[in-house]
Amino acid sequence: MTSATQPVIRIENLTKTYASGVTALHGVSLDILKGEIIALLGPNGAGKTTLISIICGVATASSGRVTVKGHDTVTDYRAARALIGLVPQEISLEPFEPVINTVRFSRGLFGRPRDDARLEEVLRALSLWDKRHARVMELSGGMKRRVLIAKALAHDPEILFLDEPTAGVDVELRKEMWELVRELKAQGTTIILTTHYIEEAEAMADRIGVINRGRLLVVEEKTTLMRRLGKKRMVIELQEPLAELPGALAPYRLELSEDGRRLTYHYDTTATRTGITRLLADLAGAGLRVRDIETAQSSLEEIFVDLLREEEARP
């Protein structure tokens, strides 16, 4: 493996079992490359936060190993942690401290020299400069979340973990944060994002990982994943409404709209034959006249839901 493709984070067979006997992670392995944005999707309790906590040294794995640029997160913790910025899901800040002091203290924790010009850059990028002397308790929830990001960026980490970064923030702030993430990527920062917002992953991520019940179900480039697992649907608008589907069309598993005017046909884009030509012929044979046809690709959300449904169906 060349240095260009050497993973900045290597996760090897990571397992976490709590004293209660609950296993939060089952042998998770994953390589994360420098400069990429990878989104981890999964429902509550899937293991996303546990995984991030172990990588960042907040929690200890039961077995397995994590290295950050070759530094073991257990035996060489300080060197590994200095490369990482973490924006936690929960807002935990000293309420009486001014914003500037909070961010400056975070930089000092990692042994970085005082650099007020750099802190000004970070605060301005997050629209916090005008609030730099305000006490944290005086800020809105959205502004507090910006402070968390500023703290994570204060020591100029090469890797940034964002654990549900836009949970509970308004749409405007969410878009601003997306733009900030893109700027950080352009500067070479590696970003690992967990989110419940499918559109967030679809808009920003280079690769998508789906985790459920502590197992990493799939990790693939976003476009590859959508092409491989995505299905297309064809919506056929009829000239006259149908009360029910003719028996001859049963093999196609068509969905009939409530008003009887639209038929929806799902097909696999990777299949040798989609069945569309035969379907259209059988529609004509059944005496159905078509007014219009349109097609649409499955969204990432639909793929995500299908993957979870398949996983839940397993014993």
TrEMBL record:
The keyword Metal-binding does not apply. Coiled coil: none annotated. Keywords: ATP-binding, Nucleotide-binding, Transport. One of its GO terms (molecular function) is ATP hydrolysis activity. Residues 9-238 form the ABC transporter domain. Gene3D superfamilies: P-loop containing nucleotide triphosphate hydrolases. PANTHER family: ABC TRANSPORTER ATP-BINDING PROTEIN. This is ABC-2 type transport system ATP-binding protein.
